[in-house]
Write a structure and sequence with these properties.
mainly alpha, three-stranded mixed sheet, 12 helices, 3 strands, elongated
C-alpha cells in the first residue's frame, strides 16, 4: 500500500474515520478535521499529539497553525530549530525532549532519557539542576546561550510534557495500521466494513457502522437462510452495486453449534 495515496488522505480529511484505527474517536475526528493531514508523517504527529503530555503542554494548536500556515511557527529556541523541524517547532516526541535536555544541560542523550523518565514524578527535583546547568551554558565568546526568560519558557514545556508522550518510532508503528485501514475504507469500503463488523466493531456499536455503510452507498442485505454465514460478507447485485450480507450471528441467542449446523445444511428448500 503506497503511503502517498492522495484519495486516502482526502477521505481522512473529511473526518469520516469510523472504523479507522486510532483516529475514529470523537476527539480524534475533531483533531483530524483541524489538522487536515496530507502525508504519512502527519498521521504520526496526530497519534503522538493526542496524548496527555502534548495536550497539557498546549502543543496541538501551535502544530496545527504551523502546518496549515495560519500563523508564525512556534520557536522554543533558535538552537532547537534543527531537531524540531519535523514538527513545525513543536515538542511532540520523546526524541525532542532528549535533544532539549542534551542541548540545555550538556548531558548525553542516554542521561537525558533518564531525566525524561523522571519528569513525571520528580519534576521538582530535576528543575533546580536543569536551571543551574542551563544558565551556565556559554557560546564560544563566553555569552549565555539561554536567558532566564528562555529557561522559564523551556522548563514550562518540559514540565507539561512529562513522560506522557510517544517516541516517534512508537507513533510511526501505530500510524501503519491507521493508514492501512484508511486506505482500505477509501478503496474497498464494503469489504473493509464487512471485516470490521465480523471481527471487532471497535468503540462504536454495529448500528453506527451499518449506518456508515449506508452513508457510503453500501447496501445492507438482510439475513438469508441460504446465503448468510458465520461472517458478514460482500455481495454484488445484477446492477453491480455492492452490499454487505448480514451474518447469522445477528440472530439473537443463537449458539455457535446452532450456527454451524445451519451453515452445514445449506441450501434449504
Amino acid at each position: 500500500i503506497p503511503h502517498d495515496d492522495e484519495p486516502t488522505f482526502e477521505y481522512i480529511r473529511t473526518g469520516h474515520t469510523l472504523g479507522m484505527f486510532q483516529i475514529e474517536s470523537p476527539g480524534q475526528r475533531e483533531l483530524i478535521g483541524k489538522m487536515q493531514p496530507t502525508e504519512y508523517s502527519d498521521l504520526i504527529a496526530d497519534i503522538s499529539l493526542f496524548r496527555p503530555g502534548p495536550m497539557k503542554g498546549n502543543m496541538i494548536a501551535p502544530f496545527i497553525e504551523g502546518k496549515n500556515g495560519e500563523g508564525p511557527r512556534t520557536e522554543l529556541h533558535p538552537r532547537f530549530r534543527h531537531f524540531l523541524r519535523d514538527s513545525y517547532g513543536v515538542v511532540i516526541y520523546h526524541e525532542h525532549v532528549l535533544h532539549i535536555l542534551h542541548e540545555c544541560m550538556g548531558v548525553t542523550l542516554a542521561e537525558a532519557d533518564e531525566l525524561r523518565r523522571s519528569l513525571e514524578k520528580n519534576a521538582d527535583a530535576i528543575e533546580a539542576d536543569f536551571r543551574t546547568k542551563t544558565a551556565k551554558r556559554m557560546d564560544d565568546r563566553g555569552r549565555r546561550l539561554y536567558s532566564a526568560r528562555d529557561i522559564d519558557r523551556i522548563w514550562e514545556v518540559l514540565r507539561g510534557f512529562g513522560s506522557f508522550g510517544f517516541c516517534k518510532a512508537h507513533g510511526a508503528a501505530f500510524a501503519v495500521p491507521t493508514y492501512q485501514s484508511a486506505w482500505l475504507k477509501t478503496h474497498y469500503p464494503a469489504e473493509f466494513l464487512a471485516g470490521i463488523l465480523t471481527h471487532d466493531p471497535g468503540m462504536y456499536p454495529r448500528r453506527l457502522l451499518l449506518a456508515e455503510a449506508r452513508r457510503m452507498g453500501v447496501g445492507i442485505l438482510p439475513l438469508d437462510i441460504n446465503i448468510s454465514g458465520e461472517s458478514y460478507h460482500v455481495e454484488q447485485d445484477k446492477n453491480g452495486r455492492y452490499g454487505i450480507r448480514l451474518a447469522l450471528t445477528e440472530l439473537a441467542g443463537i449458539s455457535q453449534a446452532e450456527l454451524r449446523r445451519i451453515v452445514e445444511g445449506q441450501p434449504y428448500h
